[in-house]
Design goal:
Blueprint (H helix, E strand, L loop, with lengths): L2 E9 L8 E9 L12 E4 L12 E12 L5 E9 L22 E12 L2 E2 L20 H4 L3 H15 L3 E6 L5 E9 L3 H18 L4 E3 L15 E6 L1 H5 L3 H13 L1 H7 L4 H4 L14 E3 L6 E3 L1 H5 L6 E3 L8 H13 L5
Parallel strand pairs: 1-5, 12-13
Antiparallel strand pairs: 1-2, 3-4, 4-5, 6-7, 6-9, 6-10, 6-11, 8-9, 11-14, 13-14
The protein binds adenosine-5'-diphosphate and manganese (II) ion (4 copies).
InterPro entries: Gln_synt_N (IPR008147), Gln_synt_N_sf (IPR036651), Gln_synth/guanido_kin_cat_dom (IPR014746), Gln_synth_cat_dom (IPR008146), Gln_synth_gly_rich_site (IPR027303), Gln_synth_N_conserv_site (IPR027302), Glutamine_Synthetase (IPR050292)
Protein name: Glutamine synthetase
Function: Catalyzes the ATP-dependent biosynthesis of glutamine from glutamate and ammonia.
């Protein structure tokens, strides 16, 4: 029987944003293992801010499994962290707080920077490159350099081979900044795949001596764009029933829950949500049709289609935890009656 390399992945207990952790176990299977075949495993929670040293065992419960073409017989196993009983979710386990709704769809747009020697990839050793303008969706050595696109393409291929539902990639507004989009049906699917895609990107960049900078405003208060992770979302009701009255109630619910949303939309978001650079102010809630300066952008198609379709919450930032983001969005939606 072939021996499989199972990379168990989980999120640690660091706040405000968790880090990815992973370790390998080797197991024999007749063929690529299904989720049901994958055993629980454990780790030392005292090294990940998830337990005290005296009783430090935490349990890893596999929740989705992906082929890993970078290793012979490789698998990436996304896990939830459980208490030692194996059934109670650990307090750091945000995935377990997501309402189970197969009709909920999410599309996340992950922006990030490549960093080398503490600077965005392609920046000169001192000073700055030519100002923003040609980099967004740009081509040519002076715009994208020699290595960024190679990493982006490799990342895409590894993710597609894993079955991750990428919907697209693009060079972003700042030099060294890129984006990929992942869409998934079901309240947890896109978030699971986002964390695994982040893992693949971080690991891939290791061999190039490059870091992935997920901070939302790595260049501070300059004229360089920050990074977001727009969360596009819909539910069965929003897609099939919708209507102006429901939409207005939904937007009031979002306005009322504004602080709960901002609390999980990623650290340092006040640096990014300034009202400039296609963002809304962190202090207000707004929605607008096709408005990239609103908290929530309503696509033209939504209005034309009698207030049915999906909405884009533009506030989540690049460092946000998609589990916490999906959890809060569905929580707020659940407060609005649907009939
Ligand atoms: P933009 O950069 O203009 O905001 P993108 O094309 O980068 O747009 O991202 C739009 C996202 O919206 C995609 O990730 C897509 O999967 C997602 N999306 C499209 N339709 C739906 C839907 N019905 N429910 C949830 N997300 C959706
Ligand atoms: Mn050991
Ligand atoms: Mn986009
Ligand atoms: Mn973008
Ligand atoms: Mn967007």
């Amino acid at each position: 029987m072939p021996k499989y390399k199972l990379e168990y992945l989980w999120l640690d207990g660091y706040t405000p944003v968790p880090n990815l952790r992973g370790k390998t176990q080797i197991k024999e299977f007749e063929s690529f293992p299904t989720l049901e075949q994958l055993p629980l495993w454990g780790f030392d929670g005292s090294s990940t801010k998830q337990a005290e040293g005296r009783s430090s065992d935490c349990v890893l419960k596999p929740v989705s499994v992906f082929p890993d073409i970078t290793r012979t017989n490789g698998a990436l196993v996304m896990c939830e962290v459980m208490m030692p009983d194996g059934v109670t979710p650990h307090p750091s386990n945000a995935r377990a707080t997501i309402l189970d709704d197969p009709g909920a769809w999410f599309g996340f747009e992950q922006e990030y920077f490549f960093y080398k020697n503490g600077r965005p990839l392609g920046f000169p050793e001192a000073g700055f490159p030519a100002p923003q303008g040609p980099y967004y969706t740009g081509v040519g050595y002076k715009n994208v350099g020699d290595i960024a696109r190679q990493i982006v393409e490799e990342h895409l291929d590894i993710c597609l081979a894993a079955g991750i539902n990428h919907e697209g990639i693009n060079a972003e507004v700042a030099k060294g900044q890129w984006e990929f989009q992942i869409f998934g049906k079901g309240s947890r699917k896109a978030a699971d795949e986002m964390w695994v895609a982040r893992y693949i990107l971080l690991r891939l960049a290791e061999k190039y001596g490059i870091d992935i900078e997920f901070h939302c405003k790595p260049l501070g208060a300059t004229d360089w764009n920050g990074s977001g992770m727009h969360a596009n979302f819909s539910t069965t009701y929003l897609r099939e029933v919708g209507g102006k009255a429901y939409f207005e109630q939904l937007m009031s619910a979002f306005e009322k829950a504004k602080d709960d949303h901002i609390a999980v939309y990623g650290p340092d978001n006040h640096m990014r949500l300034t009202g400039l650079h296609e963002t809304a102010s962190i202090h207000t809630f707004s929605w607008g049709v096709a408005d990239r300066g609103a908290s929530i952008r309503v696509p033209h198609s939504f209005i034309k289609n009698e207030y049915k379709g999906y909405l884009e919450d533009r506030r989540p930032n690049s460092q946000g935890d998609p589990y916490q983001i999906a959890s809060q969005i569905l929580k707020t939606i659940s407060t609005v009656p649907t009939h």
